[in-house]
Amino acid sequence: MLKNPKSTAFLIITSPHLDSREITNTLNIQPDFFNTIEENGAVKTIWQLNSNLSPDEDIESHIVALLKKIAPVRSEFKELNEKHIATLYCSIEYSDESKKALQLSSRSLTLIGNLGVNMEVSQWDNHKLSGAGISII
User: Fold this and answer.
1) Considering only CA atoms, which of 17, 13, 33 is closest in space to residue 115?
2) Complete DSSP assignment for 19-85
3) Which of 8, 28, 118, 122 is most exposed, with minimal Cβ within 10 Å?
């Protein structure tokens, strides 16, 4: 029996000088997660939106759900992205060897590119990270 991959996606804005309140106020969107951490002696703030869809949904549905969240404020998002780094993190867990292809529509890729968002895809095989994944910058 063929099983569809489990997937999820997160949109993260980060930088050393990021003020999470600025992002929240500018976009008028409450983050699903935010935190300030110290990493290798440097302070880094993370502002994150989750797709909130079921893991059974395909990865493109997760991406589209995130794009819809920021669609009403895309101009403001693009301005923020000039000062900070926005990355779309995607995770796909394959449980069937015959279903190991990542397919995204040209529309989704165009929207991601027009927003200036980096994209990173991690591939999991039966609960084990199977490689560094794909990064699109």
Assistant:
1) 13
2) -HHHHHHHHT---SEEEEEEETTEEEEEEEEE----TTS-HHHHHHHHHHHHGGGHHHHHHHHHHSE
3) 28
**Cβ neighbour number for residue 60 with a 10 Å cutoff:** 18
Given this model, what pLDDT does residue 1 score? 42
* pLDDT tens sequence across 43-87: 788 999 999 999 999 999 999 999 999 999 999 999 999 999 999
Can you read off the two tokens belonging to residue 134?
């794909």
Please state, as a whole number, how many other Cβ atoms lie within 10 Å of the Cβ of residue 110: 10
136: amino acid identity, one letter: I
Closest Cα partner for 137 from 88, 92, 79? 88
